[in-house]
Amino acid sequence: MIDADGPATLESALERHRVELTGYCYRMLGSPFEAEDAVQDTMVRAWKGYDRFEGRAQLRSWLYRIATNVCLDMLGSKERKVRPTDFMSVGSAENPSLTQHPENTWLAPTPDHKVLVGGDPADVAVARDSVRLAFVAALHHLPARQRAVLILREVLCWQATEVAELLDTSVASVNSALQRARATLAATDVAATDLAEPADEDQKALLAKYVKAFESYDLEALAGLLHEDVTLSMPPYELWLLGAAEINTWMLGPGSGCRGSRLVPVESANGTPTFGQYRPSGPGGAFEPWALQVIEIHDGRIVGLNSFLDTDRLFPLFGLPPTVE
Is the peptide bond before 236 cis (omega within 30 degrees of 0)? Predict the structure, then answer.
């Protein structure tokens, strides 16, 4: 029981759980901004309701109960967060569909430090795998309560009895929901992504080649770094492309405005390498924000080029400046 006469002590106890709660809410909601709102609401509710808590359960379990209810309330009847590959069939670089959809349609990336708790390297590796873009997108094929059950049981390794208590249901109901959730994920194509450590020399060499090829607009060199099934997507556009040839056609055509761009490396997003892309803004030599690039890698090749164009929100989130010289 925390000393109720010590608000600073209570605040410190709550704050110790902020990052792991943010990771949980991010998996549930698919948006770093919504996750932060959910955790802040959780903290406020916990602060106001602490007198009724009275230590009847572990503080961590109690906070997860509040966070789960907040997430379920926020989700309500909302449609799931998607990637362009979930939204429509593969597009054509020669005849692209550039229809835009609201930002809350899309699964958005998050900085690793916002959602991953340090500690045992094996636990960190599991946590990184569970925030991969492909995995979080797969989670959003599940109904909200099944999503909560699967995250709590499979990612956070809670016991069925603990989850049943949190959700005010039976162990049999939890086990049934988990079984259905597993079946849904098994039928969902969760693309493989390597989560090599940032210090991994092979990955560093690959990324150095990528930056050089992209900034010099050497499309032949770029093609040599791409997997044959590489995808390119650009939320909020619904368009996505498949294969190096289509990407080459795009970059020589509608995407040619990226010529002359600069890439600024930032902290990994969703366990994968990330860059802020700045495009030339005019003859003065300045560059303006264009996209947050999240690069997915598998077997030494780039399998996903994800360019998120919501720079007004994402660049500050990743600590990127408004312009570069």
Answer: yes
**Pairwise pLDDT comparison (6 vs 192), residue with the higher score:** 192
Predicted local confidence at residue 125, as pLDDT: 80
Task: Pull the structure tokens for residue 115.
Answer: 């959602």
Domain ranges (residues) in the chain: 1-78, 82-141+188-325
Judged against a pLDDT cut of 70, whether residue 99 lies above it is answered with yes
Total length of the chain: 325
| Contact assessment for residue 46 and residue 63, using Cβ atoms and an 8 Å cutoff | yes
Query: What percentage of the chain has pLDDT greater than the value 90?
Result: 73
For 47, other C-beta atoms within 10 Å of its C-beta total 12
Just give the CATH number of 1-78: 1.10.1740.10
User: Would strands 240-242 and 262-269 be described as parallel, antiparallel, or unpaired?
Assistant: unpaired
Helix (H) or strand (E) holding 148: helix 144-150
Which DSSP symbol is given to 55? T
205-213: average pLDDT: 97
**What strand order describes the sheet that includes 226-233?**
240-242, 226-233, 301-308, 287-298, 272-280, 262-269
When pLDDT is cut at 50, 70 and 90, the band that residue 123 belongs to is confident
Residue 265 pairs in a beta bridge with: 275
Which helix H or strand E contains 32, and what residues bound it? helix 32-53
CB atoms within 10 A of CB 155: 18
Strand pairing of 287-298 and 272-280? antiparallel
pLDDT in tens, 254-290: 999 999 999 999 999 999 999 999 999 876 678 999 9
Contact status, residue 46 vs residue 66, Cβ threshold 8 Å: yes
Name the CATH topology of 82-141+188-325.
Nuclear Transport Factor 2; Chain: A, (3.10.450)
Please return the burial class of 189, using the count of CB atoms within 10 Å of its CB with bins 0-12, 13-18 and 19+: exposed
